[in-house]
Amino acid sequence: MPERDQCTWNSMISGFAQRNRCEEALRYLASMHKEGFSLNEYSLASGLSACSSLSDVNRGVQIHSLIAKSPPLLSDVHIGSALVDMYSKCGHVDEAQHCFDELCGYRNVVTWNSLITCYEQNGPVEEALSVFNLMLRSGFEPDEVTLASVISACASLSALKVGREVHGRVAKDVKLRNDIILSNAFVDMYAKCGCVEDGYLVFRKMVERDRVSWNAMIIGFAQNGYGNEALELFREMLGGSGEKPDHITMIGVLSACGHAGLVDEGRRYFSSMARDFGVAPLRDHYTCMVDLLGRAGFLEEAKSMIEEEMPMEPDSVIWGSLLGACKVHRNITLGKYVAEKLLEVETSSNSGPYVLLSNMYAENGQWEDVMNVRKSMRREGVTKQPGFSWIEIQGRSHVFMVKDKRHPRKKQIHSLLDVLIAEMRQEHAETGPLSSEEMDYSSSILWETAM
Question: What gap in Å lies between CA 429 and CA 441, rounded to an integer?
Fold first, then answer.
């Protein structure tokens, strides 16, 4: 072209960004700026979109600095939404929240969706529900994108009450009630909240199903202990759904076999999945098989699969699964070997292998070995990772973390702990005293699980 104008440059930048040729979009944006053309909301929003797709926060910050030099752009709702989305997809939650706050009075549904998705994907997840409630109070009507993120947050938090409220809202909307993405999300949410029957009801009422629908229901059955039901649904999927199983389907199938104790059936599906369904076993499938064999007590077979059959290097998840099985079946010899393997591939700061091995020794009464493991942890500077849990009361999720001192009723909680320890000592005084090592270990476990 003998001449180019701002519109020409914007067309090229947005075209590349929309076709996921993001590096080229950013190169054209840089060239446009270098040649002295003014960057407006269209070129800058496209550039931010490219940074979002690349998760490139550094260039996103550079574009943000250009925007900051033009105050009117900061209040542009499209630019603001693009900034929130960019920081969200780059995992920078605080910056996303800051950009959202600066848009007070200039927000739209897309902006709200970006922040809700940010918290849902990056945490803290409960903030996604807080922002959703604020969105409703501010008079904005959520769309399918909003609701999908909120349902996913409910699934992560097991916030069943909120999830049911969202389901009620969707059921009243003719445009949304048959949305396949939302229906799939509800199946997954109910399963993760332990209400697999409700998820199955949603699944059966779906006007249209895709592979995600079948996978969500099969995995939902498997994770809730309905192994036979999961396999029956898998056979139904093969029979006439028109959908072919993928690697996620097979994870659900193998997991179902493990939970149902169907070792032979699991072996058969695993050995035939590539031949019958064209799905080559991945690391996750080997992990499922190790879990299946470990649950059934075939520990040596699981160890052989890891060391001799897997074409890829075992990671901490698969060794951790076998170590957990060693604990269940009280195989301390193999457990010690597996713990050493786990520590070779796991970061030295992870307390998991130490804690599992310590618990195995404790259950076998090997208190000297318990203390040696704990000494090793102190020597290596390893501390037990704090666990956390949450409970939903009257629609509000409360998060509790180990050794959290901020709870307003911490004195009552610790007083009750003292009572429990005293009763434990009294009980064992009547049935036979514990050794000092056993008492120290038991008391430490109680205090470690306190807030």
Answer: 17
